[in-house]
Design goal:
The chain is mostly helical. It contains 9 helices and 6 strands; from the N terminus they run αααββααααααββββ. GO terms for molecular function: fatty acid elongase activity.
Length: 288
């Protein structure tokens, strides 16, 4: 009985400052369903599915991968339009707060954005079933685990506030990102047209800078509850650091090591002949 009483007290604290307009919406009264689904997701992609795939050949799922990514492009496009139509087409801006001219549809769009974080779990499940384990990184898992609870907090307490700016820019980036994944499903013949892959990461880095600035402004002038503002600032900083590290190690050119040279600039190779080498002409990409 005491544990149930403690749980009730926990929910009372959570619900004290909730937006009453979403009080009875599916999965909104408590964060426990969101946390539970995320824990099940982690169990699947880190323990259950890898064990299942251990002695099996990777699945291909080419048609499903294309259809899934196409659906995500359409869904992300709808979300982006929804955030714009819900108030970001003509935002209110002052030196204090940057906010949408929110209408009643903004809350529904924000809620659908929150639910979309669960459909994105399919990304990781496909990676595991296709044995693309190099793509199931710490960054990837952290991102997919944090976003559902962050989105739940936003919808629970400030569903039509300046926080929806993050949903706006993230939806746009997902249009670009899932378009890339959709095209890459066609295989090697499409790779020469996908030279813009690294710019998806650049867009993500810009997103986190904008998110950090937006959240810092909200914290400074009280446009959002202080706890939510600082949570957003923390996550924006962590994401920027992790994505920048990924970008640096994936796309930044590295120099090949060169053998010691004599004073005349001539290098020996296996004692057979002399070759003039300009170290600035030798570079390679470090790829994951």
């Amino acid at each position: 009985m005491e544990s149930f009483s403690s749980l009730d007290g926990f929910h009372q604290i959570l619900n004290k400052y909730e937006d009453p307009r979403i009080r009875n919406w599916f999965m909104m009264p408590s964060p426990l369903p969101t946390i539970a689904i995320t824990v099940v997701y982690l169990f699947l992609v880190k323990i259950s599915l890898p064990a299942y795939m251990k002695d099996r050949k990777p699945y291909q799922f080419k048609n499903f991968v294309f259809i899934y990514n196409f659906a995500q492009v359409i869904f992300s496009s709808w979300l982006f339009y929804g955030f714009l139509a819900g108030g970001w087409y003509s935002p209110k801006y002052s030196l204090e707060c940057f906010e949408p001219r929110a209408d009643k549809n903004m809350i529904f769009v924000a809620y659908m954005y929150y639910l979309s974080k669960f459909t994105e779990f399919i990304d990781t499940i496909l990676f595991v079933l296709r044995k693309k384990d190099n793509q199931v990184t710490t960054l990837h898992l952290y991102h997919h685990c944090v976003m559902p609870i962050s989105s739940w907090l936003a919808v629970k307490y400030v569903p039509d506030s300046t926080m929806t700016f993050l949903g706006l820019i993230n939806s746009f980036i997902h249009i670009v990102m899932y378009s890339y994944y959709m095209l890459s499903a066609f295989g090697p013949k499409m790779q020469k047209y996908l030279w813009w892959k690294k710019y998806v990461t650049v867009l993500q880095l810009i997103q986190f800078v904008l998110s950090l600035v937006n959240s810092a402004q909200a914290a400074l002038f009280g446009c959002l509850p202080t706890a939510i503002s600082f949570w957003n600032m923390l996550q924006s900083t962590l994401f920027f650091m992790m994505f920048f590290d990924f970008y640096k190690h994936t796309y930044k050119e590295k120099k090949l090591p060169t053998k010691p040279t004599k004073s005349n600039g001539t290098a020996h190779t296996n004692g057979l002949k002399h070759i003039d080498i300009n170290e600035n002409d030798i570079k390679c990409d470090k790829k994951l």
